[in-house]
Amino acid sequence: xxxxxxxxxxxxxxxxxxxxxxxxxxxxxxxxxxxxxxxxxxxxxxxxxxxxxxxxxxxxxxxxxxxxxxxxxxxxxxxxxxxxxxxxxxxxxxxxxxxxxxxxxxxxxxxxxxxxxxxxxxxxx
Length: 125
Fold this sequence. Notes:
Layout: H1 7-17, E1 23-34, E2 40-61, E3 65-67, E4 70-82, E5 92-95, E6 98-106, E7 114-123
């Protein structure tokens, strides 16, 4: 039988996990605009400059392929954020000057103590 946390226990667990989020990163979201000539352009803007986070490398690496006409691979990272962080599919994360694509957001998991996502950095493109 699953163990249910009380509201107080859940608040305490979320507070405790903040101690493990030792870094900060910038979360960016894209917006699109259409010119009078019908050309669509995409721009990125920070929605949060200093989101608490923890970025850990994954041992799995995507196979090498062709990206933008060059051989490249994606290094993958597990990202952990506060449980109620405003991050959605399609966002990207700037961490230590590197741009990381959000490729998977874990929306369903026990107790919602944190928000987790898989990020990727394209290498060699």
